[in-house]
Amino acid sequence: MMMKRWATLLFPLVLCANAAGVCASEVTFQGGLQYDWWKGNNDTDGSQVFVPVELGAEMDDFSARMITAFTRTESDISGVGGFQSLSSVIDTKVNLSYMMVDKLPVNFLFGLDLNCPTGKTDLDDDELLVVRDPDLVSIVDHGEGFNVNPNISMTKDWADWGTGLGIGYLWRGEYDYSGEYRNYDPGEIAYVTGEIRYYLAEEGLLRLYGDYGTFTKDKLDNEDFYRESDFFLLGAETRYLTEKWETRLNIKGTFRGKSEFRQASSRLKTESREGYGDEFLADLLCRYAFSEKDSITPFVQLLYIDDNQYAASSPLYVGTRTKYSAGLSLKRQVSDVGSLELMLRVFHMDDEKGWLDSDDVTYNGHSLMLLYAGSF
User: Fold this and answer.
1) CA distance 301 to 251
2) Residue 43 — φ and ψ, nearest 5°?
3) Does 6 map to a domain?
4) Which of 284, 279, 288, 278 is nearest to 250 (CA)?
5) Whole-number pLDDT of residue 83
6) Is residue 8 part of a domain?
7) How far is it, in rounded angstroms, from Cα 256 to Cα 87?
8) How far is residue 256 CA from its own chain's centroid?
9) CA Rg, the chain, in Å?
10) Which pTM was predicted?
């Protein structure tokens, strides 16, 4: 049984060559409240409330950011465990960076990302039932070990073109995932990112980007347990920005290979088929500013995940997933240093049968968010 759902690792490459000048000293804050709700046609439903908090600071070429949240997740799974809930603070993410712009022929961004284990681990059987799919609720990882992720990005701009390259390595610490899976040591991740930009006059750009990542072996009680498949991500984005309008279209695909599982001999064996289907995601948003203080942003999203390569009769088969999302965001500048944003999103998702559900399932849900962002 998979202990964690594979999440696409996208490390965006920041083209710092055209970055606006960082103010000498600034502290930023974001905080709010979000409510997610979903319901399936198989007598299942659930919800999640979380309160995110983010603090940031910038001074000259240095910046630091810290993010955490309190979350409460509830689910009612008919025929499995009934109503269950899980409340916790999640892990705290810390990002430190140093930017070198216009000091060398190539611009550099040095980063250090940390995952501090302030969340909840060692989940019991009832709490495991609450952990849901990330396409249903926003937060599914309530706690991990201490992780360290150094990374570096290099960028170069010309008149109409920009290029960039980034590399990084993520060390992931050991922790107790649950009562059954103790001393779990997830594998490390090495990744490389790249991007090419073409600037369309002063109002827009075209952007092509890609990521590649490879994993080392997960261990359980110091024995090889699992190895996640390598992944490759390829995307394209276009943006158009004027004083009142911003339009953005982003399309990307994620492609994965074969994973390795522990056999009875305690050795890892590559699966006979690719256990993950190809994943495609398209986002479109259009922001309109009524004034210097007020703006509205409608957006739509389409997610399609192809079925994997196992036969439909196999217990490892996972069918296709299609998710349609749409929403609206209203934002107002409430002071010289602060803004308030209200966002509503709805979704419809069709899931074909898989190892988790023996029948096709249709889900519907919505999210409501209120967010304050300010600086001082």
Assistant:
1) 10
2) 60, 40
3) no
4) 284
5) 84
6) no
7) 33
8) 17
9) 22
10) 0.89
